[in-house]
Amino acid sequence: MKIAQAILREELASFEKRFKEAVKSQTPLLDRIMQFIVNRKGKQLRPMFVLLSAKLCGPVNEAAYRAASLVELLHTATLVHDDVVDESLERRGFFSTYALWKTKISVLVGDYLLSKGLSLSLDHGDFRVLQILNGSIQNMVEGELLQLEKSRSLNLSESVYFEIIRNKTASFLASSCAAGAYATSQDEAKAEQLRQFGEKVGIAFQIKDDLFDYGNEAVGKPTGNDIKEKKLTLPLIHTLNHVDRSTRREMIYLIRNHNKDHEKVQQVIRKVIDTGGIDYATRQMYIYRDEALSILYRFEDNDARKGLEELVRYTTDRKY
User: What is the pTM of this model?
Assistant: First the structure.
């Protein structure tokens, strides 16, 4: 991501200051938790997508910085709540907010982040940007609930899988790109093009995450974790839909009844690899990546476009 970071060096520094200001609280406990969260932020992929999309359509302005801050606030709120739902004690190699402050405080912290994001937009009249991003939060919740519902039956078609990840992962990145584009252009057509671009990137991003569960790279989570949680990802879905009935029945039995047994999980992983599930998912990932790039190439070739192209390729080439 060196090109994107170099292109946005000044903008990211300015964003950092604005984001820290946006999460400040007058309550000592809350302010301490906010500092903890700020100091352990991730790679800032989403703010970079917002700012580069904004820069692609015009000079980065205050509305673009607010859009990037709103995206980071909303994203962080969902992560805090996700750790509660998943009872996860780690986030990016550190203790999670849930691990340190437990359920009640974590839920309230997530609510606080959400409300700060809403206030940031409403106080400055960024109604269209807020409207763009609000829909994606609804989609994320619907996608999560659909996945929980389908994981119980272990019967998931490819079309339902794509509906889930389009809502859970791709919708938010799509809205982030659209919000950035609209902030500097107020052009609905450009915002829609960047929304479609972001959706394609988001789908490729999620398929890459699926593939990590079958690889050997150190990705911050145990290999086979999705299977242990009975999540049906694209490599597994493809395999279940292309093996004979007896093998399918055996695999579903192992996932349902022996998903905590390391050797049984490895048995499922080997079957997915042997039947071409990994190769199939990889091909699908590159199809979505290339579709995203084809949309991006409709825009003028400038630094912002180069930065976005690098982020797209990072999405599919990353090692964690």
Answer: 0.93
